Amino acid sequence: MCAAFIAVLVMAFSSGAYAWTDGKKEGFLLGVHGGYSFTTIERDDYEDVNGSGFLVGPYIGFGLNEQFLLSFRVRYHHTSSNDSDLELYTTMLGGDMMFFLKPDLGLFINAGLARAIAASNTTGEPPWGTIFYAGLGYFFTQNVFGGFDYAVGSFDNDMSTGTISFAVGAMWY
């Protein structure tokens, strides 16, 4: 099964692989991003907690055309509380979409839906949840971009989160 999945991926991306890094958004893409985020954590059994911390992760995907890119994004957040001893470690795995308002303009809208697991230094079994995010970004050069997004999450243990993230990254396509 795994070999068949890898074979399908190779066939899907091989036609565009020869043109990779040609400067056109259409075809295979790889990227990395990192930044800083501010998070509010809400649960019924304790007071709201506010925190901030770093984020980092890779992108892998495909540009359908010069305006629309789809990717799989992994984002790891480490959040330290300003109010308590809470440390939260969140890993997001999800689909990401970038839409460029005009093909020649660096401005884009991004949005995505992700599954996430949130471990902390104060709880036992880490809860799974779903996170939706949306934001804006801008490519300063052909490969370097910056942006921000707002994410809302809902987790199995009645925890909900709201996060504002600022990131810079590099993407090759």
Write up what this structure looks like.
The protein is mainly beta. It has a single domain, classed as Porin (Beta Barrel), CATH 2.40.160. About 10% of the residues lie in helices and about 65% in strands. The chain contains 1 helix and 8 strands; from the N terminus they run αββββββββ. It has an 8-stranded antiparallel barrel. Mean pLDDT is about 85; it is low at about 1-20.
Count up the domains: 1
Secondary-structure element sequence? HEEEEEEEE
Characterize the biggest β-sheet.
Answer: 8 strands, antiparallel, barrel
Using the coordinates shown, work out and report the CATH topology.
Answer: Porin
State the name of the first-level CATH class. Mainly Beta
Q: What distance lies between the first and last C-alpha atoms, to the nearest angstrom?
A: 29 Å
Question: Which strands sit side by side, in order, in the main sheet?
Answer: 1-2-3-4-5-6-7-8
The second-level CATH architecture is Beta Barrel
Oligomerization status of the protein chains: single chain
Instruction: State the secondary-structure class.
Output: mainly beta
The tally of strands reads 8
What is the helix tally? 1
Report the helical percentage. under 10%
Shape: elongated
Average pLDDT reading: 85
Strand content: over 45%
As a whole number of angstroms, the C-alpha radius of gyration is 18 Å
Q: Ranges with pLDDT <50 over ≥5 residues?
A: 2-20
